[in-house]
Amino acid sequence: MRRLSLPRTFIMTASILAFVLVLQSLIAPFHFSSQAQTQNWEEKFRALPRADLLREYMRVLSAEPHHLGSAQDKKNAEWMRDKLNSWGLQATIEEYQVLFPTPKERVLELLAPTKFTATLKEPPVAEDPDSTDQNQLPTYNAYAADGDVTAPLVYVNYGIPADYEQLERMGVSVKGKIVIARYGASWRGIKPKVAYEHGAIGCLIYSDPKEDGYYQGDVYPQGPYRNETGVQRGSVMDMPIHPGDPLTPGIGATKDAKRLAREDAKTILKIPVLPISYGDALPLLRQLRGAVVPDAWRGALPLTYHVGGNDDVKVHLKLSFNWTQATTYNVIARIAGSTYPDEWIIRGNHHDAWVNGADDPVSGMCSVLEEARAFGELLKQGWRPKRTMIFCAWDGEEQGLLGSTEWVEHHAEELKQKAVAYINTDSTGKGMLGMSGSHTLERFINDVARAVPDPKGKGSAWEIVKAARERGATTDEAKRELRERADLRIGALGSGSDYTAFIDHLGIASLNLGFGGESGGGIYHSIYDSFHWYTKFSDGDFTHTRALAQVAGTAMMRLADADILPFEFTNFVETVDRYAEDVTRLAAVSKPTIPVDLKPLRDAIEKLRRSADSYDRGLRTSALSNRKEADLKALNRLLYQSERKLLSDAGLPRRDWFKHQIYAPGFYTGYGVKTLPGVREALEQKYWEEASTQARIIGKTLDAMSEQIQAAASKLLNR
Fold it and tell me: Structure pTM?
């Protein structure tokens, strides 16, 4: 190693000291008044989560099928409530009454040119004792329509809008036919929705081994991937319209709530839909003739993929359901805040599963429970959070985010006033930390990830993610950003988990966290999502599950005890500017027939940038000493209410429940996010006047946020 000369060493040391001073000026206001006290309590917390307890929680909660409405679902909720109370939290169960269809009859037959009857069943495997459990829900799609249809079969690839454009170019119509689509490329509920829009009278969805089976690796029980009989259950509720109970949109589904007639519910589908295994799909696809599909449409089954649609291949699909109400059991536990009890930090994960659900959702639910236990231990040692911490175990998530949505709608007015942030997890596995959420919390969650050791002991959780992104960077721009940008970018939130009502409907800043990337997978929503599968093929030693508890718990602690809440706006405005560049490019390539005016959006971003910079300067230079509690409370209220300014009361076009103007699930993607959704989707659908109107609406929401941030900057500087 070459020794540095004195001048160069001096310059490097000075630079490092300057950087540290700047970093301290950025981070210090977010924590306790005493940095030593902050670090002490955080270290105590992170030492408390235990892998053996996480394993035991999973063993108990995944021991039996516990879908919405089942006896075991209620039993699990009561077990968690009692555990939380024993740890020193105040826990109760809140109930809602929701529409939950279960199947009465399921028939799928090939009538011609040969006879075949689908098994529609997942057999047990000897290695997995849970696969023999009683009370398993059958393989079906919730909120599909009753129907008895016989028609030719058409293969539609993933069944997304672009696939129907390709079919039209090939001269193939699905009108009056049954379609078969493979899982992937979009959320399952989009596939029958688009099929219906094109005139189909039924829809089958199967798991092709190309994405979800032997093409990926060894199948269960020899490996983690989906075997030929595995079926992905799931809801096909039209959640891009609104999640939650289909009969009580916008209001909590209490016993006395006013309900729609079922035929008036907008989120129940109009055609029968059924999920099947690739074992049941193979005899159907093998009979199809017609044009050979494009290369991108070909899966990994041992056949030539044809489009079909000919009258000589007839399929019979018959479905009927019990359209009854079920009770959701949300477990809600609290630790009262000592200084700001009316400012709430909310943490949640769902507890219901399609069957046993060790991976989805019990792995994430275990982390929440262990965080709560650890905080209970700290309470015994004299720690008290400044803000109220609320821990939630949601029910009915699998059917359409029922428990969380009904709770949010029921408590909407109180949440609008008191909710500071919501931290969500769902399933978790082994691998790297995944971070997504509100970009006003991007810098904050980066700092949290820097503080938590990676489970493998190779640095911090943040360093592992950064190193992986550096290995995967393929462009000079991406490599340069990773070198120069202080924070790793986090993803935007679409839908598909319980953060949806918080951020999209009420404008509560949210984060979604979890570890993954190394577990493989192929048991999603099947009977094989069991304790045996998880401990053999996923996080069997529960070190990553423990790390998730450390990450989410550290975030909860910092939010609960920050003198100044860690909302940061320069990263947010930079991100929104990138979204605006995206829609500007989209407008250019869409070749609109009338001018699309995006100037109000660009002007608002520049105003937002000035406000963000003003607040950033204030945060760097202001002192916390001699601040009155009332002044801090007023400042923090401006900060956590800032995300509310990104809502429009009118909501998005054709789906007014979704009010956030920066993030939303796509109308034709379901889970996948659309950023600046009003403008982006108008351009995609060629609604040129609407695109201009939506640009003005987004501009107004950004202007409102700019004013809020400027008010916070003035409060920070005592102006």
Answer: 0.94
